[in-house]
Amino acid sequence: MAALSTTKSSERESARAQTPGAFWKAKLRSPGFLSMVLLLVTFSVFLPVVSHEFVNYDDPDYVTANPHVQSGLKWENVIWAFTTGHASNWHPLTWLSHMLDCQLFGQHPGAQHLTNAGFHVLNTVLLLLVLRRLTGALWRSALVAALFALHPLHVESVAWISERKDVLSTLLFLLTIWAYSKYVGRRASSVQAPSPLEERRHFLHVSGYYSLTLLFFALGLMSKPMLVTMPFVLLLLDYWPLNRLSPWIPDSGAKGVGHGATAQKQTHHRTLATILGLIIEKIPFLALSLLSSYITFLVQQKGGAVSTSISLGARIANALISYCRYVGKMFWPENLSVLYPHPGRWPVWEVAVSGSLLLLIFLAVAVLGRKRPYLWVGWLWFFGMLVPVIGLVQVGAQSMADRYTYVPLIGLFMMLVWGCGDVVLAKLRTDRKLEIVSEKSSPSPPREERRPFASAILLHE
Predict the structure, then answer these.
(1) 332 and 271 share a domain?
(2) Are residues 197 and 339 in the same domain?
(3) Are 460 and 432 in contact (CB under 8 A)?
(4) Residue 449: inside a domain, yes or no?
(5) To 5 degrees, how large is the angle CA 286–CA 365–CA 279?
(6) Are residues 186 and 42 in the same domain?
(7) Which domain holds residue 331?
(8) What is the pLDDT along the chain (461 residues), one digit of tens a residue?
């Protein structure tokens, strides 16, 4: 028996040695392997930041000239972090993160840069795993994560110590989505003829993941209040890829279920009830968002960061142009800057062109998104997540900022990757159909010659 086992083991090793292609194909289907590749590539790209110094833009407020941060984690500093509006922001968790860095590394900038890079690497891997869990599409998720990891617009968020709030809040943003996907999965699972104990256990699992989702979200808001759009993002994920907004289709054979107009009316009512239930489910998240928005507005107004010199019309015009500039820099990231000064007033023709372009994109998404829901989710993810920082409430002197795209660009990356993937798959299906039709129309070879070709078709399919 032992000899037989040894023989089979040697046969497997021999087969692996003879087919290295099969070995690497298996590796390329492994989430762990792809995660490790992304981790190593991303870390290698951003490793040079360890030789960078502090800069004189925001770093003095956050680290180099901040005695509370420099003295590390002390009880009085923790109280300060939760009660201060320093730098016109309320993000206590970000302050605690900077304090911990100083506690561990002192005033060494390289170590603090490395912490930012480490958060970015974690975000990249987590984005891959979360998207794969939500969609089941490993390679598309990996491509989105790669774009997120290496896009030039994201360098500012990683290589600038003061932007710790970006990488930290994004980690908690992705953990919120992960916990939410676990909550949805647990809630959708049902126990056949459950006992009271099983019912209680199921309830504890569901409520536990819901509470964990809410906790991660609250921590994210305490890292950067830009995450106030999270309830909106969760509703988008309910639509796709979680498919929780799918209309209820009545069973025509069930008792009491009508036909025609009656069935459509019942379906319509069930769909509205489902949507209402999902909105009610987000009320605690909306409450946290409103509270965070209120605190942030008060802090920024008290700190003098809210500008009142720019009219509402000029702010709307800048918002339209900024959306288009962000899309343009996603495709062609040139002339990047740490500061894009607000011009005060944009030329009318630029505003008109930008508004028209955005309208065309919305129309295209409305038409194509009927069969491709990822277009709606990706575009509204990008558009909606930028609302808090698009300049409708003008904070600071900038018209836009690269760092604001750190999370919103994920939506455009999903549109691009899933769209290209569908185009490639459609092309492959068309080529396969043409190949089969061509072979069927050709003269039939002798029986013994048909077998290899038949086997090849089966393998190809």
Answers:
(1) no
(2) no
(3) yes
(4) no
(5) 20
(6) yes
(7) 307-439
(8) 445 455 555 545 554 555 777 877 787 888 999 999 999 999 999 999 999 999 999 999 999 999 999 999 999 999 999 999 999 999 999 999 999 999 999 989 999 999 999 999 999 999 999 999 999 999 999 999 999 999 999 999 999 999 999 999 999 999 999 999 999 998 888 655 567 887 788 888 899 999 999 999 999 999 999 999 999 999 999 999 999 987 544 443 444 444 566 767 777 778 888 999 999 999 999 999 999 999 999 998 888 888 888 899 999 999 999 999 999 999 999 999 999 999 989 999 999 999 999 999 999 999 999 999 999 999 999 999 999 999 998 888 899 999 999 999 999 999 999 999 999 888 877 767 666 766 666 665 554 444 443 333 333 33
User: Could you give the count of Cα atoms lying within 13 Å of 287 in the half-sphere of its Cβ?
Assistant: 6
> Are residues 264 and 128 part of one domain?
yes
**At which of 306, 327, 342 does a domain end?**
306
* Residue 391 and residue 270 in one domain: no
Supply φ then ψ for residue 401, to 5 degrees. -155, 140
In a domain, 163, yes or no: yes
**Domain end: 283, 306, 329, which one?**
306
**293 in the same domain as 181:** yes
The model carries a pTM of 0.88
Q: Which amino acid is at 345?
A: R
Q: Looking at residue 62, what DSSP letter applies?
A: I
Pick from 216, 144, 145, 204: nearest CA to 179: 216
Closest CA to 147 of 325, 322, 330: 330
Q: How many domains does the chain have?
A: 2
Are residues 329 and 273 part of one domain? no
Angle at 374 between CA 371 and CA 376, to 5 degrees: 85
Residues 278 and 354 in one domain: no
Contact 173, 181 (CB under 8 A): no
